[in-house]
Amino acid sequence: MSLFIKHYRPGSIFKKQILWRLNSSVAENHESEEEFRVLDILKKRDKQQKRVARRIDVPADRAEKMSTDQNWGNVWPGPRSFHPSTVPLPIRQGFVPKGQVPPGKKANAELMKIPNFLHLTPPVIKTQCEAIKKFCTEWPKLLNSEEAIEKHYPVEVITSDYCHASPTIRNPLARVVTLRVKLSTLNLDKHAKDKLLRLVGDHYDEKTDLITLTADRCPMRRQNLDYVNYLLTACYHEAWTVEDWEKEKMEADMEYYDWNNNQSKKNLVNWYHKCINKDIALSEDEYKSFDTSVIDHGEEYKLAVSSLFNDGEREETINNYDTAVRKLLGLPERKPIE
Amino acid sequence: MYSTIPIQRQWARLAHVCRALSSLEGHKLPVGRKSIDGISPPLRISRSPTDILQALAATVGVDPTAPHYKYHDDPFLIPQSNYRKRAYALSAEAGRKAATWIRDEQAHLFTTREWDPPMKMKTPYFNADPHIDAFTPRPIYNDESKVTEEDLLYTINNALLDDAIKVYQLLAASEGVNDELKLSLLQLLCFYNEKEPIGAEWLEERWFAAATRERQAATWKLGGLADKIFASMDPKTPEAYCTLIQGMAKYYQAERAHAFAQEAIEKGVPLSTGVYNSLLSCVGFLKEGTALRIEALKGLLTEMSDQGISPNADTLTACLRSISAWGGGQILQTIALQIMAEFKELKIQPSLSAYYYMLCLFCKERGQRIDILTSILTDLENRECLEASDAMDTHFFITAIGVCSDHLQDINLAERVHALLMKDDNYKLVGDAYKESIYYRHLVTVTCRHAPFEKTAQLLDMLIPNIYVPEPSVMEEIIKTLEVAGAGDRLAEVWSQLVVFGLAKRIKIVEQLLNALCQCYTYQDDEIKEKIRNAAADMLKFGQLIEEQNENRRTPTQQLSATALANIIDLCADVNDKADPSWEVVGEALGRLRSEQAVGVPDKPEILASVAKKAANIGKPGIAATALTYLAECGFEEATKACVETLGVMLNRPTDEVQTLLQEPKSALVASLHPSALVIAEAFHLAKTGAPMDSSSSDSDSDSSDSD
């Protein structure tokens, strides 16, 4: 080709044509220039001209041959994308401008895109259930309500199975195991309960009373299941053990405000004794075990102070405290501010 | 433990554990379906990993409209003929083979394994993705490869015969092979006779492999590797003897096998039942003549009992195999019955192949009719399941149905055989594609001949075309049945079936179909009549198309006979509307008749005469003229009368007047008559005198006058 370009002179149409011919195996205007005919070895031209009309024997859709009383489960036994020649239903699908008819089932990509459930018709589900019934055992009779189940099977294990089409059938999320158990179903005393709650921390939900343990650190579900079981067992037994250092628990370490142990009670008792003109010196333990119900409105005051500390400062608790104190001291009730 | 579960439940748990332990020890307690205390779950019903899948699969029945699941379920891709079925399935498998070949050739490209679950590859030993041996490339062995005994073991276990031989040669040259491996290799070589088998994964190839009957000739490789290995073994173990003798007997090297057996007995080497079975199956090669052979057979059996070897089901099969190979006759049949009785005493159930040999022996084509099939079927129907134990087991069903069809001609027995084949998963015993089609050939033939029509129709609808595509001979049988039953509707459909089955080029069937259509045309409904006309027209069109396609080929195309064309004309001319396209078909067919593109002359020329009259009546004079000219040219007697009558219809005159008119000279007629009428007049003269009318006549423009 470079040869021709080198010798190319403007205006020489003749050479231009040769150049073009050499590049193409098909000569188009060879009627005009007989002497430059190109040898058409592959006979492309002749082949193209002779086009045999071939008879295509495509059988009719098999949907047309189906009898009306056939068993559809035999025709469509498993999940499969839609095929118009197999489904004997006049389905239409597709978005069209208003007033037009949606396209029919043939050559309709919309119908193939969406997953169908033609393999899960109610009669098929019924027969399949019948078929696998022989592998099922009877449901235990006494487990007839949610409460019964909760009572007898307090531990709940939650896992997820994933089903998808991809080169691997495994999903990493399937390994995650969650274990839930109600705190109230565990056999705990006051100390153990307190210790367990401290051990599980924010895995405990006060509203639902559930301890939730989740494990995803191991690669297999079985390992994670073993791990959550281990966690629950370990926490439970740890909660029951009492270590030496636990005796060193101070008032400041208390997880809640115990009115009996606090200065507020002492103040109330002292004040009460002053009111009834008694001058008795009480020991620590006597203060703690003093029965406040002898004091008028004493119990009320106790609850108000406890809730103020335990539930936090809120308008409601402060108002409660206010009324309790007024009642205790015999002050008039608070007048609403106008 | 740590929860407040009632003590009762704890007991249930304990019981559960105890039961699990006791079943571990092997004592299986009855599985309770009920919970003991109403709270703990009952024991699980034991099941295998695939039991649920199998239970679900059992709910799916047969869909006669669907193709086999190996084909795509799409009208363009469903194979409709035997040729296409074969081609499509084998093409798919060829693709798989090509992929395997590339995998083996470029093994280094296929070493990666999916890391599963997808995570960082920190733990090299943990990968949940299972390692599947079938997906990994096969090792390639050549002269340079360094092999160990493990390679030999691998090739033997995977039945890679050629590779095993290569590895053995390499090993033997370098370090030698131990006796255990030598024995395994010897077993492999003897089983396959040193021929690489078709791999188990090529299902289609095995299914469609040409089922040529095994040659009953000594194919054992004398002095081959097996013999050499046996010679090199020292000491020669009983297993080695057994293997070699069985291999020789399997490949019909009978004399050497027996010689070796004698040698082994003399040396005091114990032989197995299998060895005697194989010796029994080739005992006939040693002797000539029935009496001597029977003697040898009995001799071997007594030798067996002398050695204290008990026979099994294969022994029975081997005996019957030998006997059935020696021909027929009363003596052999009696011997076979005696042996059967003897084994019945021993409580040995005959296998399917034993029954196959019995059928071969008793139900000869040109023999007496002996019904042993009934008792065989009764026995087989009472068995719980039929297991394949011998390669010849797959011959039983085709032979049984063949006996029903040819020998006994009994539709009830055929139905029983078919029901047995369809029971459970007995269909696996049908063998391969070749045997399956023979089976259905016999079944359809016997049903067509002897069953009531409704049953036949039901069977045909069920089988054709997805399970079975009829061969030409069966198609003829079907057409005959449909003709007798007068099912015009189905007959019209048969034509389209012929086209898709690739049988439409077989002129004999097409002609038979046309005959059948003509026979039952008159008493059909109008709708079906139209269908039949369309089918007939299509036959003509199809013939032309084939001719056009075959123009360049050397092989001549078969053409429809004149009788068939006349039949087409007869069918298509049954319309009273002048504008009906059927008339074009009639014209075309007549054109072919006249231009002598058909074989022979019509059987019934009166058809053409009546068509000519009808054409003239409704205003198609051109067709009438062509038909009559053809009749006259062929020299049929009907021509003169038909000419006169047709002219009478055309010119609307009584016969006498037409007769006188025809006496006039041609020049006068030219002036007075319509061109088509003129042609008929010429035909009249031709038929009467055997020579054309005096002046030059033209027949080419007869068609052009159709329009008026």
From TrEMBL, chain A:
Coiled coil regions in record: none
Residue span, Small ribosomal subunit protein mS35 mitochondrial conserved domain: 171-243
Gene Ontology MF: a single term: structural constituent of ribosome
InterPro entries in alphabetical order: Ribosomal_mS35_mit, Ribosomal_mS35_mt
Cellular component annotations (GO), alphabetically ordered: mitochondrial small ribosomal subunit
One of the GO BP terms on file: mitochondrial translation
Pfam families: MRP-S28
Identification of the protein by name: Small ribosomal subunit protein mS35 mitochondrial conserved domain-containing protein
TrEMBL record, chain B:
Name of a matching Pfam family: Rib_mS39_PPR
Subcellular location field: Mitochondrion
Record GO terms (molecular function): ribosomal small subunit binding; rRNA binding
InterPro entries: PTCD3, Rib_mS39_PPR, TPR-like_helical_dom_sf
Gene Ontology CC, one term: mitochondrion
Keyword Transport in record: no
Protein's GO biological process: mitochondrial translation
Keyword Mitochondrion attributed: yes
Record key words, sorted: Mitochondrion, Repeat, Transit peptide
Name of protein: Pentacotripeptide-repeat region of PRORP domain-containing protein
Species in which this protein is naturally found: Pieris brassicae (White butterfly)
Organism lineage string: Eukaryota, Metazoa, Ecdysozoa, Arthropoda, Hexapoda
